[in-house]
């Protein structure tokens, strides 16, 4: 491609409305443009990357035995009514009526449509297992789309669905998908980790997420330093502290704490360690509970894990915190003065908080705390559960090593769904015994457009993007210096351009009449991994310059040896 | 691909709701399944064909210098309000509100979005010309979707848009697109014709349609038998008959015609030739006209060309016929007794009707006709225009040869749009003189999914589809006979399958435990062009059978020579 015949669309200024580096660089490098909130046009530099990611995903899905199909984006509502998701799905599900006033949705996912297809096409165990995938634009009407294509409303997704008659068969396809995903991210050239994940609202039993590692990642993922264990922090179990709870050594006393509404203020103003405080969070109980509110007790330095909390049957899901008014009405004190002693509602205590002795907590009276509280002596220790996020250094739940924490961007998710969809949609086939048997399903997603943003979060420097070769918009840039004044430079550059094309190298020939500085800045910004610079000064010496974008390394080589450099 | 690991999804029965052969065969050959009215899932056999068509289109667009981008499917309404199409576009434009009650459309076409992009990104004549394309699922909410993917609501389209500062530059890109389209249809292996087309409601000056020829085609296209002239019948000019109008030889007389309400009845009941009759059609006048109705006069054997009529400034567009009540109120007679004599409204006479002498027509009194009418003597001949469809044998409007008529399916359309969109959206750049100048545009569409159906309409026989090699779902089928009983057959078949894959041949290995008859029927139905049959009887002779699907030709060849056959 010649720059002069191309839409490079680079920008010097960092757009003010782009909060994260991938969004800024995608705008500056001419990869995307915003059409409306959460809707982006992919410009040539962006689409070239997106297509390369898409093609790697497709090839590895094909290699894994999954079969490509293509379902409509527009889906009739009746299927969503069959599974109950017409009511359950929130306003992220975009609904509309067609010209005949029939209800449709703009597909955010395709479990219903693919199950409808399979219940019609598959009648016998002989046709199973079956694993179908598609790569398609999806729509999710996010309340606050942001971060460019990282969280857009229209996005490109690979979604696959597998169908089986036994859990063993599902497990086997699940393992194949896990392996295919590893191959995909390896080929993309990204640092990634598969981690155990919560199955959450999708249901099912087993689930893994695939994360691209990046400091800016929204998710915390945890690893054992001595085993393969890796999990989303949402899922990672926090073990109970080792050993017995220390015996009480202090008397419980009431302390006036008028200026301490938070744990941080308490620790600052009084002689008490944060590990010897607990905090009390009041949440709504589930409909099954006989109470309306439940208190969660965590150690002062620990964070509530909302997923763990809402997975408890007593607690409403999604998790909902009581308002200050509701707390005052129930307890008679504000949220800054709560504690387990004399609390008029059921209490669930985190494993670490349950291990505390001689600890401080609010007295359920405004501006008062108790210090020197001890479980069982001063307050009954009721239900104990894992309620907190693990922290760096916690023992690994696998039993080997300690945990470290990194940030990740979720770009893939695989699920063992079980029969949730097949049952409600009555998807069954004749088994080997000639009896009707409900199918069991897996589903497997990759956020194709999100991978592009995640790759940039992981691979950038102050000059722009540092693409891995596999997904760079071009593999090679040819930058001639003052070509329009030097016939020799023009001749060498054009010859190398033709040769690169013949070798099947994806090459950008920057033949614009621009100053070298402008050309270098653009090439570095859009992140072409290999750069050839051709100028009269080096040609005088019989060489040209090769520059590696990622390492920054420059070497002078003879013209005829240039293609050995990369 | 092994059949046993694939979703072949063939059906024996012809689906009752499929009216045309391509729709029937796409269902039977496991290519598509209907999800809802006008919404189809592409199964593996269909998607393989669709992807091959898509890839050929992409390659030729790239080769022509067009640059691929990808715009959102969901488009904000404000752009459609800018061009006025928010009001002008009918209910085919699917409109909906997002969760914040903002108006959006599901894109049927992207003139607005691409013009918005270009007016932001392109500021200088130096960036022009620019030709951008995308390949994308589009949505048009057809009132009556039918014929499967031939007229579906969601469909795959290649749309391209070019931007220029002069008509010469637009013409040059238009010519490149014309040539690219010819290459596309040649590579697809389809019999096609580019024809002159009406620019219609899109506006602009020059337009060509690309038709796949098929007897079942909805469109009539006309050709000169002595030149390159070809046009959609909507566009083909009907020349005035040669020579002077014959002089009157009869007196005008009134005839009672109580049982002749149509030209056919008139000709049957009276001694008059159909070429000596005229028919009178009453249509609504345009708002510019001072009348509300206008009469169109055509020879009795000719058909009104509605496009030609509505292109006349006096006539309402879209064309609207007067109702029987309106006709009676204006004329005092019903539609079966109309004629030019004593007609109380303006008349536009077709060129052929204007050449008639001694002709018959209704008397504008129920159950009465005049015979022996002559223009100017009996009734003033006012405006004469080209109003009719050409017929087989008409002189070609190019001046050379006579016209023949074939049926075609429109699969591509290219337009010189001019400044219609650029003007209303204020898309301008600085020209070489440093002045702001409005852009001029072209647009270029290919119905990618429609091509699949059109190719089948053109290429089928009683056994199924006879694909051209370039777009067959597989190029080669390997059909082993009783493989599960013969180790030798299994060995040869597996070896040839591996060799075909190594040679990069798209191959289907039918390894199902089915009777040979079932396998042959499926392979012929889905239309794999080259078939290798392996059985013990031929292996005894040291040969295998090669069959060509299109020609039906069978030959026996030595195993090691099989890949020389195709």
UniProtKB/TrEMBL annotation, chains A, B:
Primary localisation category: cytoplasm
NCBIfam families the UniProt entry points to: PRK09194.1, proS_fam_II
InterPro entries registered for this protein in UniProt: aa-tRNA-synt_IIb, aa-tRNA-synth_II, aa-tRNA-synth_II/BPL/LPL, Anticodon-bd, Anticodon-bd_dom_sf, Pro-tRNA-ligase_IIa, Pro-tRNA-synth_IIa_bac-type, Pro-tRNA-Synthase_IIa_type1
Pfam family, any one: tRNA_edit
GO terms, biological process: prolyl-tRNA aminoacylation
Gene3D superfamilies tied to this protein: Anticodon-binding domain, Bira Bifunctional Protein, Domain 2
The organism of origin for this protein: Agarivorans albus MKT 106
Name of the protein: Proline--tRNA ligase
Subunit structure, as described in the record: Homodimer.
Family named by the database record: Belongs to the class-II aminoacyl-tRNA synthetase family. ProS type 1 subfamily.
Residue ranges of every copy of the Aminoacyl-transfer RNA synthetases class-II family profile domain listed in the record: 38-480
A single cellular component GO annotation: cytosol
Keywords per UniProt: Aminoacyl-tRNA synthetase, ATP-binding, Cytoplasm, Ligase, Nucleotide-binding, Protein biosynthesis
HAMAP family assigned: Pro_tRNA_synth_type1 (MF_01569)
Subcellular location: Cytoplasm
Encoding gene (name): proS
Purpose: Catalyzes the attachment of proline to tRNA(Pro) in a two-step reaction: proline is first activated by ATP to form Pro-AMP and then transferred to the acceptor end of tRNA(Pro). As ProRS can inadvertently accommodate and process non-cognate amino acids such as alanine and cysteine, to avoid such errors it has two additional distinct editing activities against alanine. One activity is designated as 'pretransfer' editing and involves the tRNA(Pro)-independent hydrolysis of activated Ala-AMP.
Catalytic class of the enzyme: ligase
Domains: entry comment: Consists of three domains: the N-terminal catalytic domain, the editing domain and the C-terminal anticodon-binding domain.
């Amino acid at each position: 491609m010649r720059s002069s015949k191309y839409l490079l669309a680079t920008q010097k200024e960092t757009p003010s409305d782009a909060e994260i580096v991938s969004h800024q660089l995608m705008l500056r490098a001419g990869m995307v443009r915003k059409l409306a909130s959460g809707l982006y046009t992919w410009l040539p530099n962006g689409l070239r990357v997106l297509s390369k990611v898409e093609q790697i995903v497709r090839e590895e899905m094909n290699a894994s035995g999954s079969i490509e199909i293509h379902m409509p984006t527009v889906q009739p509502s009746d299927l969503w009514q069959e599974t109950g998701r017409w009511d359950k799905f929130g306003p992220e599900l975009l609904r509309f009526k067609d010209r005949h006033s029939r209800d449709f949705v703009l597909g955010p996912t395709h479990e219903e449509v693919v199950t409808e297809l399979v219940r019609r096409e598959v009648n016998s165990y002989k046709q199973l297992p079956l694993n179908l995938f598609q790569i398609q634009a999806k729509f999710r009407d996010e309340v606050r789309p942001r971060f460019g294509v990282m969280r857009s409303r229209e996005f490109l997704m690979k979604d696959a669905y597998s169908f089986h008659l036994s859990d063993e068969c599902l497990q086997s396809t699940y393992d194949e998908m896990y392996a295919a995903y590893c191959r995909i991210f390896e080929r993309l050239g990204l640092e990634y980790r598969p981690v155990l994940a919560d199955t959450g609202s999708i249901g099912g039993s087993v689930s893994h997420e695939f994360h691209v590692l990046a400091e800016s990642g929204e998710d915390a993922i945890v690893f054992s330093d001595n085993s393969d264990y890796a999990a989303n922090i949402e899922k990672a179990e926090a073990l109970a502290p080792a050993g017995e709870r220390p015996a009480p050594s202090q008397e419980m006393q009431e302390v006036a704490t008028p200026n301490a509404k938070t744990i941080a203020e308490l620790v600052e103003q009084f002689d008490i360690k944060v590990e010897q405080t607990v905090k009390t969070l009041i949440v709504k109980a589930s409909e099954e509970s006989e109470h309306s509110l439940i208190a969660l007790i965590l150690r002062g330095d620990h964070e509530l894990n909302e997923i763990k909390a809402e997975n408890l049957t007593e607690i409403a899901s999604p998790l909902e915190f009581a308002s200050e008014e509701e707390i005052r009405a129930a307890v008679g004190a504000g949220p800054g003065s709560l504690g387990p002693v004399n609390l008029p509602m059921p209490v669930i205590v985190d494993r670490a908080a349950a291990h505390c002795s001689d600890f401080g907590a609010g007295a359920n009276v405004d501006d008062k705390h108790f210090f020197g509280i001890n479980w069982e002596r001063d307050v009954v220790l009721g239900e104990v559960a894992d309620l907190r996020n693990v922290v760096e250094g916690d023992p690994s739940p696998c039993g080997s090593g300690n945990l470290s924490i990194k940030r990740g961007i979720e770009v893939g998710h695989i699920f063992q769904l079980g029969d949730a969809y097949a049952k409600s949609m009555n998807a069954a086939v004749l088994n080997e015994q000639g009896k009707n048997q409900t199918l069991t399903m897996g589903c497997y997603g990759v956020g194709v457009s999100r991978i592009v943003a995640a790759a940039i979060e992981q691979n950038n420097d102050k000059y722009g993007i540092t693409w891995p070769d596999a997904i760079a918009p071009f593999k090679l840039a040819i930058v001639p210096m003052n070509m329009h004044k030097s016939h020799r430079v023009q001749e060498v550059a054009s010859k190398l351009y033709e040769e690169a094309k013949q070798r099947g190298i994806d090459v950008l020939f920057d033949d614009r009449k621009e100053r070298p500085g402008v050309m270098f800045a653009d090439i570095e910004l859009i992140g072409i991994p290999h750069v050839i610079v051709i100028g009269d000064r080096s040609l005088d010496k019989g060489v040209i310059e090769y520059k590696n974008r990622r390492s920054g390394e420059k070497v002078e080589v003879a013209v005829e040896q240039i293609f050995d450099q990369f």
